[in-house]
Design brief:
CATH architecture: 6 Propeller
Order of helices and strands: EEEEEEEHEEEEEEEEEEEEEEEEEEEEE
Strand order of the largest sheet: 6-5-4-3-26-27-28-2-25-24-23-22
Strand content: 25-35%
CATH superfamily: TolB, C-terminal domain
CATH topology: Neuraminidase
Low-confidence stretches: 2-34
Largest sheet: 12 strands, mixed
Mean pLDDT: 89
Number of domains: 1
Length: 464
Amino acid sequence: MHRKRSAPLFTLALAAVACGDPAIPNAPSATSANDARPAATLGPSPMGPSIPIDVKPIVTGLVSPIQLVQAPGANGLRYVIDQVGLIRVIDEANHLLPQPFLDVRGKITALSPGYDERGLLGLAFHPEFARNGRFFVFYTAPPRATAPEGYNNTTTIAEYRADGERKVVADPMSERIVLQVDHPQSNHNGGTLAFGPDGYLYISIGDGGGANDTPLGHVPDWYAFNAGGNGQDIEANLLGNILRIDVRGTPYSVPMDNPYVGKAGLDEIWAYGFRNPYRFSFDMGGSHSLLVGDAGQELWEEVSEVMKGGNYGWNVKEGTHCFDAAAPTVSPASCPSVDPTTGQVLRDPVIEFANSKQTGGLAVTVVGGNVYRGKEVPALAGLYVYGGAAASFTSPDGRLFASMPQSGLWPIQELLIHGTDRLGYVVKGFGQDRRGEVYVAATKALGPTGTSGTIFMLMRDRGQ
C-alpha cells in the first residue's frame, strides 16, 4: 500500500439520507482565495418526452436486491446482491438457484427492517474470474474494538474465491480482508465495487453519514462557510471519494498514475467531493465513461461523469447549486468555483433533478444505473438508464429514467410501461449482463424486509 504518512490510517464509508445540522461560520467574501462566484443556473436537467417500455420479472422472492452482476468469461450465470447478506444466482433459464453463492449474514451489522443503508452492498468479479475464481464484496460489519467511541460500523472490502467450472457456490472460508474503515454513522454507506477497463478496482466512498459533514467522524476542510467536510478533504480520510486500487498487491497496492500519488492527498483517491455515490458504473461501450449517481441532501439529486482527480463539489455545492449547511433549503447566491488546496475546479453534474422535498420533485433520491448497450430496447441505445428510488419514504412508487449524453446537462426522459405506467416498486439498483441488457432491482418495501424483492429486465414495448 502507498499512503501519505502525514495522514491517519483510515478506510471506507458512504451516504444517502439527511439529518439536521447546527450553526456555520460566516461565508468567505467574493475576493477571498476561495474564488466565490454567482450560483450556477444550469439545473435542473430539461425533461424530454417519455419512452414506452415493458419489463419482464426474471426472479421474485428476494428480500432487498440492490444490484445484478454477470461474471466475465463464458459463465452465463447472473449474480444478485441481496442487502441482507446473500448473493443469489440466476441461471441461464432465469431460475433462482436455491443455494446462495455466498452468505455473509453472520458478518454484517444487524439491519433495521424499516429502513437501512447498511448490509451487503457491493460485488465485483475479477476480470479473470473464469480462471482464478476471485471476486470482491463490500459489506458493513459491526464496529471493531479499535474503532473510535460512538462509531456505528466497519465498512469492509473482502476477497473470496469460487471453485469449479460453474462457480455456483463460493468458499466462505476463503475470505481475505482487503480494506476496512471505521464508519461513524449508520447511513451514507454507499458501496459500489467495479473493475474499470484498466483492470483496477474502483470503490465508491461516501462522506461518513449524517448531514452537512458535521456529525461524529467528520473533519475540518478548506471551506469555512460549511464547517466540516469529508467530501472536500483528501488528506485525513478516504470518505467522500471514488478510490482506485490494484488488487494484485497484498492486501492491495496503488496504481502509480493515481492523481494524488507523490503529492498532498491519499494515494487511493481517484476523485472526490461526493456525498453518497451509492451506485456507479462504467459504460460498456463508447469511451467507457464512469457515471456516478450521488444522493443529494435537501433539494437536488445528481449524476456525474467522473474524471481522474476531479472534485465534484459536495458540500460546497449540491448539484449545480451552491449549498448552505445552516439553511439547506435556500441556495446561496455565490460559492467557490475552485478548491484552493488542489486547484481543482468544482465540476458540475451531467444530470440534475429536484428531489421530493421540492414541489414537483421527481424522487427522494437518485439511483445510478447503466448505459444501455443491448438490443432488446432499440429506443434506449446509448442512453444512460437510472432511477429515482421512490416519490416519498412511504410509497413504493419508484421511477425509471434515461438520458442521452450531450454537452451541458443531459435531458431526462421517463421510462413508462406501455407508455403510461410506472413500475410500482421502490427502485434499489440496476444491473447489466454481457449483452448490454439492463435490469432493475426493486421491492415493495423501503427497508430490507419481506419477500417482494424482484429483478426486472427492461424489454421493448411490443404494443408500440
